[in-house]
Specification:
CATH topology of the largest domain: Molybdenum Cofactor Biosythetic Enzyme, Chain A
Largest sheet: 6 strands, mixed
Oligomer: single chain
CATH class of the largest domain: Alpha Beta
Radius of gyration: 32 Å
Strand content: 25-35%
Number of strands: 28
Number of domains: 4
Shape: elongated
Distance between the termini: 25 Å
CATH superfamily of the largest domain: MoaB/Mog-like domain
Strand order of the largest sheet: 7-4-6-5-9-8
Length: 416
């Protein structure tokens, strides 16, 4: 579970250095060709639909609002009765009834009449405007003095003004945000058809890996990647399915892979470097097709990708920073396409570099940074140090053809 060669162990396999790497954009292109959107659908309740992707368009089966309604507390009137009204010369109308929300008018309005009305209540037949209560004065009995004119349809929510019956309200593949859920609820729909989330098997490998919550033995380390990968998967439309750690034998790994293939994607953690017990490549070659092994990036060079049947298989480096940075670069695009989501739009800020950043020639580098006092400050320690990312605000990318980013140069920080 490393980014580099491990101490040799007694085994029949040989250390295999990564001699050839491919550029990041080529690796990503191969991944996106292999990514096929999940077509399975399910019907779920509206309360559970936030963040899900619509599998069918939503067409309005009624008008919203379903009736003309008052947009203000006040008095429904025939607008022409108010023309010329002012505080000096108010117009007098006779109140015929009061309409609250949840009730309906029982009397139509004629010229010279008005209806006291609450915001959201249905307009009476014949009324075409509302005078706000602040612009009225109550006279004796049912007399209401109008202190300002209103024009037809003023302060009235027209039937169907928000959504008209027959209108396509949402389209297939729209993500259900809070406002879109509100639009569906406005139509009275309690359930929607959505695409299933792709399930992603997370398989950690290595004799040294144990679950948090257990005491460490000699030479052991806790499984970090299972949790960082699971969080990334959950944030980008997938369902993480963690499997028990596979020990470093080809038989154990093959058996674990067979169990994982019931999912839509398989992500290995560890076993993709050049050590003699790094068996991910062997298993992928035996069971499927290797599309690349090694990317010209730093960190994260020893990454393998291929397919077993129709299942994309991504073998991540074991080092936590390498694994997580490659999840941002490779797993998120793969997962979002399969989840029927649009490409990720990371929030970013452009600030000057607080220091000189030196990159490795020929490798696309991801360098974690803090944004302090409006500048990008380096946070990267080492590929094996999770605090390289947990104590950072985001990362900058240094292209393969760039050796140095000078202090003061403007850089784009993509925020986590």
């Amino acid at each position: 579970m490393t980014d580099s060669a491990q101490t040799p162990h007694t085994t029949h396999t040989k250390m295999r250095p990564i001699l050839d790497t491919i550029p990041l954009d080529e690796a990503l292109a191969l991944i996106m060709v292999a990514a096929r959107p999940v077509g399975r659908t399910t019907r779920i309740g509206l309360a559970d639909a936030h963040g899900r992707v619509l599998a069918a368009p939503i067409t309005a089966n009624q008008d919203v609002p379903p009736f003309n309604r008052a947009a203000m507390d006040g008095f429904a009137v025939v607008a022409e009765d108010t023309f010329g009204a002012s505080r000096q010369k108010p117009k007098s109308l006779r109140r015929v009834e009061t309409v609250h929300t949840g009730s309906v008018p029982t009397k139509p309005l004629s010229r010279g009449e008005c209806t006291e009305i609450a915001t959201g209540a249905p307009m009476p037949h014949g009324g075409n405007a509302v005078v706000m209560v602040e612009e009225t004065d109550r006279g004796p009995g049912d007399e209401v003095k109008i202190l300002t004119p209103v024009y037809p349809r003023q302060h009235v929510g027209r039937q169907g003004a928000d959504i008209a019956s027959g209108e396509v309200v949402l389209n297939r593949s729209d993500v259900l945000t809070p406002s879109r859920l509100g639009a569906i609820a406005a139509l009275g729909l309690a359930e929607v058809d959505v695409f299933d989330r792709p399930t992603v098997a997370i398989l950690s490998t290595g004799n040294e890996i144990i679950e948090p919550g257990h005491p460490l033995g000699p030479g052991q380390i806790y499984d970090i990647n299972r949790y960082t990968l699971g969080a990334v998967i959950g944030d980008h439309g997938g369902v993480a399915v963690a499997y028990p750690t596979a020990i470093d034998t080809i038989e154990a790994l093959e058996a674990a892979v067979d169990r994982c293939l019931e999912n839509d994607i398989l992500v290995f953690s560890g076993g993709s470097s050049v050590g003699e017990r790094d068996l991910t490549l062997d298993v992928l070659e035996r069971k499927g097709e290797v599309l690349f092994h090694g990317i010209a990036v730093k960190p994260g060079k020893p990454t393998v990708f291929g397919q077993i049947g129709d299942t994309p298989v991504l073998g991540m480096p074991g080092y936590p920073t390498s694994c997580l940075s490659n999840a941002y670069m490779l797993l998120i695009p793969l997962l979002r396409k399969m989840a029927n989501l649009s490409p990720n739009r990371a929030l970013s800020v452009t600030v000057p570099a607080a220091q000189r950043f030196v990159s490795t020639t020929g490798r696309h580098q991801f360098y974690t940074v803090l944004v302090e006092d409006g500048e990008a400050v380096g946070a990267f320690k080492a590929s094996g140090d999770i605090t390289s990312m947990s104590q950072a605000d985001g990362y900058i990318e240094i292209a393969a053809q760039t050796d140095i980013v000078e202090k003061g140069q403007m850089v784009e920080v993509k925020l986590f």
